[in-house]
Design a protein that fits this description.
The chain has 323 residues and is α/β, with parallel strands linked by helices. The protein has two domains: 178 residues, D-Maltodextrin-Binding Protein, domain 2, CATH 3.40.190; 140 residues, D-Maltodextrin-Binding Protein, domain 2 (3-Layer(aba) Sandwich). The chain is built from 13 helices and twelve strands. The strands form two sheets. Strands 1, 2, 3, 4, 5, 7, 8, 9, 10 and 12 form a ten-stranded mixed beta sheet that branches. A two-stranded parallel sheet has the order 6-11. The two termini are 34 Å apart.
Length: 323
C-alpha cells in the first residue's frame, strides 16, 4: 500500500507534474491550505481546520486528489489519502481507521457485514464514470482491437497463452506479458467479473499492482505487454501507450472516450466510481464541507483529470443525502 500525507506540489501541479511524481511524496507532512509565514492565519476565505483520513482505489484517487488540492486553497484541513485498493481500503474503513474510502465498485456484502460488526454506518456517493482501458506497448502496431472472447481466453485461470500469435491468426510471433491490478483492487474485481465471468477469477502469472503508475511503467517498457487500468492513467500517458478498442461480440470495435463511457456504448468496461464516508465523520464540519465541495466541484475536476462526470442529478442526489 502507498500512503500519501497529502502534499500538493503547487496550485498548477495537475497540469505540470505526472501523478507518479505526486505519489513519491508518501512521507511528506502537509496541511491543505496556507498560512502567512507561520502566523497561523488561514488562507483567505477558509474557516475550517482539522484532519480527514482516506484510503482506497487508485482509480478514484486522481479525482479525490484534485478535489483535495482545490479544497486546500480555502481551508486549513489536513487530508491524507492511501491507495491500497478498493478492497484494502474497505478493510481499514470498516475497522474505523479512515473517514472515507475511494471505491471503483460498490461495497460488497462481506464488507457491509464487516462494517456492521464494528458499528460503522456509511453513506455512498457516486462521483464519476470510468472506462477500463486496454493498452499495449506503442511498438505493437499490429493490434487495434481485441474481442471480449479473446480477453477471456487470455485472462481465465487455465490460460497458458504467452505469445501474441496464440491470440489470433496473423498476430506476430512475439512474447506476450500481462499487467493488471492486484486482488485488492476494485478494478480487478470488475474486470474479472465482466471479462472472465466470475469475480476474482484470473490467471495468476501476470504483473500485478494496486499502483496504476507502476502498470503504466511496465507496459511502456515491455514490447510484448498487454495491460488494463482506468482511462485517466492512459490519458496521462498517451505518448507511452497504445490504446485498444474492444469488441463485445457484435463485430463493432469501440474505444473508451468520454462519450462512449457515459453512454454505455463502451461495453462491458464502463462503470461508475464512488466515495464512501462514515456517518460519524460526516457529523464533523470539515468533513461535511469537504463532501459538499466534492459534489459541487467534482464533475469539473473529474473531467480535468481524465474521467467522465456523472449527470447533474447524481451530484444533486448526493447533496440531498447530506441534507
Amino acid at each position: 500500500m502507498r500512503f500519501i500525507d497529502h502534499a500538493i506540489l503547487a496550485p498548477a501541479s495537475r497540469a505540470t507534474a505526472p501523478l507518479g511524481a505526486i505519489l513519491v511524496l508518501a512521507l511528506a507532512s502537509y496541511a491543505c491550505g496556507g498560512s502567512d509565514e507561520g502566523t497561523g492565519a488561514q488562507t483567505a476565505g477558509g474557516n475550517l481546520s482539522g484532519e480527514i483520513r482516506g484510503d482506497g482505489s487508485s482509480t478514484v484517487f486522481p479525482i479525490t486528489e484534485a478535489v483535495v488540492e482545490e479544497f486546500g486553497k480555502i481551508n486549513d484541513v489536513k487530508i491524507s489519502i492511501g491507495i491500497s485498493g478498493t478492497g484494502g481500503g474497505f478493510e481499514r474503513f470498516c475497522n474505523k481507521e479512515t473517514d472515507f474510502n475511494d471505491a471503483s465498485r460498490p461495497i460488497k456484502e462481506a464488507e457491509k457485514d464487516a462494517c456492521a460488526d464494528k458499528g460503522v454506518e456509511y453513506v455512498e456517493f457516486q462521483v464519476a464514470y470510468n472506462g477500463l482501458s486496454l493498452v499495449v506497448n506503442p511498438s505493437s502496431d499490429f493490434v487495434d482491437c481485441l474481442k471480449v472472447e479473446e480477453l477471456r481466453r487470455l485472462w481465465e485461470p487455465s490460460s497458458t497463452i504467452n505469445n501474441w500469435r496464440q491470440v489470433r491468426d496473423g498476430f506476430p510471433d512475439r512474447k506476450l506479458t500481462l499487467y493488471g491490478p492486484g486482488e485488492d483492487s476494485g478494478t480487478f474485481d470488475y474486470f474479472t467479473q465482466v471479462i472472465v465471468g466470475t469475480e476474482g477469477s484470473s490467471r495468476a502469472d501476470y504483473t500485478a499492482s494496486e499502483d496504476d503508475n507502476l502498470l503504466v511503467q511496465g507496459v511502456s517498457g515491455d514490447q510484448g505487454a498487454l495491460g488494463y487500468f482506468g482511462y485517466a492513467y492512459y490519458a496521462e500517458n498517451i505518448d507511452k501507450l497504445r490504446l485498444l478498442s474492444v469488441d463485445p461480440g457484435n463485430g463493432s470495435c469501440v474505444s473508451p472516450t468520454p462519450e462512449t463511457i457515459l453512454s454505455g456504448e463502451y461495453t462491458p468496461l464502463s462503470r461508475p466510481l464512488y466515495v464512501y464516508f462514515t456517518k460519524e465523520a460526516l457529523e464533523r464540519p470539515e468533513v461535511g464541507e469537504f463532501v459538499r465541495f466534492y459534489l459541487a466541484e467534482g464533475a469539473a475536476l473529474a473531467e480535468e483529470v481524465g474521467y467522465v462526470a456523472a449527470p447533474a442529478e447524481i451530484y444533486e442526489e448526493g447533496l440531498a443525502k447530506l441534507r
